[in-house]
């Protein structure tokens, strides 16, 4: 971690800020500092923590972590302090303070905190998207101008002043319980507005859309999640969502950065890992439960995905729970 700071802005050297003017940069750092203080007051230990604000989660990690697979649901992730990276298929997304990520579909990805210390832990704000609130806003907020975007279901961008202002107003409510029921929905709505009006706006609209190829891919994702234990062919999945196999394969990969069968495999492996860790069942039982017919194939794919055979991986997680924070 960099400890050599700029004396004016108190920012680490090499830390890339959005292209603000000098006074805006000072304000940018002030907001991040305040956000970090609010999160630190409200998170007593490492890990995910729910808050009295519905759909708002806070994350803390006082150390770098192992790569931890997880299914990321449609949500905003705004990093306030420290750094992390998320791998989705063959793509790597990097976060640092003031950068936010958008997920528009349930996606299996791997997150890892790459910069954190006990004195300056990784701190992060998550906001799950309310589809009803988002749907109402999409009818009132005109689409942002710009060129067509790649429809991948995850992106990372630099937060602008408007989004940071809205985020700090939401976090301040954690210290003002009386105002929370009235102002919480307004602050959440403002955040969604800023996202819809920003560079991720066109992508956000697909969360509530029921039309088009990306919406069909969304239905394919949901179908696999419900049926990931079953064997299926691309032809069967394509018929379920009303696409040709070639079109489904192309558009599914463009949204998820993986094929439908790779998507299914990640869901199976993550579910099996959770079963072994939480319910203390053996690898063979977990493999059969998630749909594997061959325990040998399961162990081989598990090791390729997690870096260790099942028993050794689970033992490592239990021995070092502080390294297993899902970022």
Automatic annotation (TrEMBL):
Alphabetized PANTHER family for the sequence: ARAC-FAMILY TRANSCRIPTIONAL REGULATOR, TRANSCRIPTIONAL REGULATORY PROTEIN
Keyword tags: DNA-binding, Transcription, Transcription regulation
Pfam families: AraC_N, HTH_18
GO molecular function terms attached to this record: DNA-binding transcription factor activity; sequence-specific DNA binding
InterPro entries with a match to the protein in the record: Homeodomain-like_sf, HTH-like, HTH_AraC, Tscrpt_reg_HTH_AraC_N
Annotated protein name in UniProt: AraC family transcriptional regulator
Organismal lineage: Bacteria, Pseudomonadati, Pseudomonadota, Alphaproteobacteria, Hyphomicrobiales
Domain HTH araC/xylS-type, chain residue ranges per copy: 218-316
Organism this protein belongs to: Rhizobium azibense
Listed Gene3D superfamilies: Homeodomain-like (1.10.10.60)
């Amino acid at each position: 971690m960099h400890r050599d700071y700029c004396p004016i802005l108190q920012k680490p050297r090499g830390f890339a800020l959005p292209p603000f003017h000098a006074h805006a940069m000072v304000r940018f750092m002030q907001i991040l500092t305040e956000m970090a203080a609010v999160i630190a007051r409200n998170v007593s230990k490492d890990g995910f923590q729910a808050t009295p604000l519905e759909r708002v989660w806070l994350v803390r990690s006082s150390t770098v972590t192992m790569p931890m697979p997880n299914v990321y649901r449609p949500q905003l992730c705004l990093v306030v302090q420290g750094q992390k990276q998320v791998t989705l298929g063959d793509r790597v997304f990097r976060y640092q303070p003031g950068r936010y990520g958008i997920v528009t579909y349930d996606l299996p990805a791997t997150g890892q905190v790459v910069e954190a210390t006990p004195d300056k832990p990784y701190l992060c704000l998550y906001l799950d998207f309310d589809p009803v609130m988002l749907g109402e806003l999409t009818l009132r907020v005109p689409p942002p101008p710009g060129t067509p975007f790649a429809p991948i279901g995850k992106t990372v961008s630099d937060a602008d002043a408007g989004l940071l202002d809205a985020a700090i107003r939401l976090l301040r409510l954690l210290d003002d319980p009386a105002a929370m029921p009235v102002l919480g929905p307004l602050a959440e709505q403002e955040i969604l507005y800023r996202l819809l009006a920003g560079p991720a706006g066109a992508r956000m609209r697909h969360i509530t859309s029921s039309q088009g190829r990306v919406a069909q891919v969304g239905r394919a994702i949901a179908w696999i999640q419900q049926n990931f234990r079953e064997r299926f062919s691309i032809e069967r999945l394509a018929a379920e969502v009303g696409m040709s196999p070639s079109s489904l394969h192309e558009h599914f990969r463009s949204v998820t950065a993986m094929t439908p069968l790779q998507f299914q495999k990640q869901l199976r492996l993550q579910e099996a890992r959770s079963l072994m860790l939480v319910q203390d069942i053996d690898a063979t039982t977990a493999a059969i439960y998630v749909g594997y017919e061959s325990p040998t194939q399961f162990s081989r794919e598990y090791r390729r995905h997690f870096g260790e055979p099942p028993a050794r991986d689970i033992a490592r997680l239990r021995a070092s729970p502080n390294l297993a924070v899902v970022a």
